[in-house]
User: Which sequence fits this backbone?
């Protein structure tokens, strides 16, 4: 008889329940694949008696996830509580300090404390794996960290927040306003307790920072991600983008430049016919560009019980099968903090603004753009009932710095009401 | 100082040269990622002095790849010669017998001798990895074998022969006949020495058999792949498929049914707007469906120096970093031969035939279809200068058995000239 691998699972929400279901449903398959049985020794959650659709009475219970992580009968700690700090971090640290491997789906914790946790893991000879933290069921961490280990990575991109993509595609399909779909998503339980994590791009930014660290061999740097949420995207923006052959996606881009690492997560116009443009609903996509392999595109469910639990179990199997690489692909102690490079790659931009209906207003905006060195690809003023005219401008490629200068200039004209919506346009 | 990992590379064609280039260009990166330097100790190829664009004078030379595999200064044997038998197999066996890990891009060898080689590898405690054997640079073996280890896999599909996809997309784009593009591809060096390996679907069938074994935990069974090549696809087929919103792809499908494992590689009409339908040129795509994760789609370059060498190096890094799973994901000795299930899933079919221009001919064909229980979705007879009329029929979903019965019936009518072209249609 081989020794079983005994899991301690902290967190019995959607993902935790999914992991329990896989372990229970696939005992023989898992044992065949990893050479030893996988068992659940103990579990922990905020409340013990909630009906979760699974029977946890056969597993030991711990109120305290730290105590769970320290149990002698737990070989591998599965952290599925969430939250960058608090019990998730304390329990993860307890497990790693005890030399126990940890599998987690916690992007916030890794984006903020990834470096310290990786160092702790390595100092204790314990594995720390987090495939489920990025893009749900898509094995993108593995692809980047292992499959593409022979590549210098130039760029990582992706649509990595299913909720935002759900909101944007539903607005488009039903012609609904942002606020309506936002409320609908909240009612359906699609949004985090603090919805800004989703719609503000923070959750997706966490994921991008994790991929970026692996891709470029630098310390995870969530603070270096330029963030722009989807809150100001209107149904008109979606329609006008569509008229031009684009769809709006919350797109993360991380690239290595001579100046440092550029990381951004913001609503972006992508060609409607491109793989990114075709993403519907909660589907995620990660695009990785390596110097040898070229472009690899990975698509799959970005959230949900099964997909996320699948990613957790992939990590569990890796750990059970043998050693695994350091959490970020190379020893954490040797990882440098890369300089933060501000976004500098020129690209076309979509600008939508409300223009006071007075003589010369449009000319003043055009002048400001010209003074910033930005040339206009197209400009259109729409019919309007009120005193302010909706104006749409698509620029030729310009640097983010030039765009920022133009936006400052517009504010000074006195003819633009409020802040324009400015979105980058990704070429084909 | 850590001990270097010393490679012996047998085969210095496109992929071998690519591996040498990566090792030389990325010394520091590779050492950081795997914790020890990677060096090339010795190489072997058919001719020593050919200009390959790289300098191999710094590496020991062996005329005999078996001798290379046995060298004391070779820690890991990289087999890039190709060919199911002969020197590739002999050298792989020599390395594994000596307990040395092997990385290979050799799909033919694995599809035919994969079980025996996996058993030999495991008996000697040596790793055997072959990411580069399937779909070039796409880390699909890793995704299936490791990332999706927690899933019971229901189906694996893919476009896995870049040359066939190049031929089909070029016929479509330029309106050229199959024979023209075939000769062009041959002149460009895109075709194997025996082109049937490509256009007959054999090469792609090898790849499917490898993925299928991992997916379903059964012995690799290339003989169980139903093969149909692209040789009979005409530009008219491509155009007519296009008119109906489809594109023709050489598509592999492997699925687990209660009867056994169904494997097929054949030209298939796929929706033009689907991810499979949008593949251009030599790009490959692998679609994996797991019970937990749902559908994962992986896209990338299916061949070429950089992508294939990237896959080889991913395996090299895995081996350098530590233990790796058994070649097919679970101990080979325990793998069963799964029963071969004939294709049984009903699907719509595209039929193109040449009908003798005589009264009642079309009615006789329609009658034969009806007698086989196949109903017709659409039927069209085209203008024709000669005595035979081109007829196109699209059926409603029917089983392959019913279709075979209908095709036999048509042969008996005496009104169908030659064999009809029959292609399956994959739904949305």
Assistant:
């Amino acid at each position: 008889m081989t020794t079983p691998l005994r899991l301690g699972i902290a967190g019995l929400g959607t993902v935790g329940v999914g992991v329990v279901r896989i372990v229970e449903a696939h005992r023989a398959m898992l044992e065949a694949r990893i050479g030893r049985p996988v068992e659940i020794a103990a579990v922990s959650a905020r409340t013990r008696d909630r009906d979760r659709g699974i029977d946890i009475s056969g597993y030991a219970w711990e109120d305290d996830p730290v105590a769970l992580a320290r149990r002698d009968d737990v070989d591998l700690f599965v952290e599925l509580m969430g939250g960058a700090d608090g019990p998730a971090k304390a329990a993860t640290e307890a497990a790693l300090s005890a030399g126990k491997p940890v599998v987690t789906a916690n992007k916030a914790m890794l984006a903020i404390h990834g470096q310290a946790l990786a160092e702790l893991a390595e100092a204790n000879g314990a594995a720390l794996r987090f495939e489920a933290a990025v893009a749900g069921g898509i094995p993108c961490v593995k692809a980047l960290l292992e499959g593409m280990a022979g590549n210098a990575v130039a760029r990582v991109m992706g649509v990595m927040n299913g909720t935002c993509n759900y909101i944007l595609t539903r607005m488009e399909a039903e012609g609904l306003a942002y606020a309506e779909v936002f409320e609908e998503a909240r009612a359906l339980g699609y949004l985090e307790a603090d919805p800004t994590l989703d719609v503000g791009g923070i959750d997706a930014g966490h994921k991008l920072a994790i991929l970026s660290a692996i891709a470029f061999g630098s310390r995870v740097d969530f603070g270096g991600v330029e963030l722009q949420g989807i809150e100001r995207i209107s149904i008109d923006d979606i329609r006008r983008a569509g008229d031009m052959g684009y769809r709006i996606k919350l797109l993360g881009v991380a690239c290595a430049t001579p100046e440092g690492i550029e990381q951004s997560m913001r609503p972006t116009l992508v060609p409607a016919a491109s793989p990114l443009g075709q993403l519907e609903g909660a589907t995620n996509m990660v695009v990785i560009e390596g110097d040898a392999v070229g472009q690899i595109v990975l698509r799959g469910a970005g959230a949900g019980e099964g997909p996320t639990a699948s990613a957790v179990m992939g990590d569990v199997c890796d750990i059970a099968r043998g050693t695994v690489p350091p959490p970020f692909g190379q020893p954490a102690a040797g990882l440098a903090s890369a300089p933060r490079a501000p976004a500098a790659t020129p690209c076309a931009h979509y600008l939508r603004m409300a223009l006071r209906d007075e003589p010369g207003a449009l000319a003043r905006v055009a002048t400001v753009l010209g003074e910033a060195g930005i040339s206009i690809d197209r400009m259109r003023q729409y019919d309007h009932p009120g005193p302010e005219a909706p104006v749409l401008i698509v620029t030729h490629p310009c640097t983010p710095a030039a765009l920022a200068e133009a936006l400052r200039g517009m504010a000074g004209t006195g003819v633009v009401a409020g802040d324009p919506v400015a979105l980058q346009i990704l070429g084909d």
In short: Chain B has three domains: 5-133, 140-302, 348-425. Chain B touches chain A through 58 residues (CB under 8 Å). Chain B has 14 helices and 16 strands.
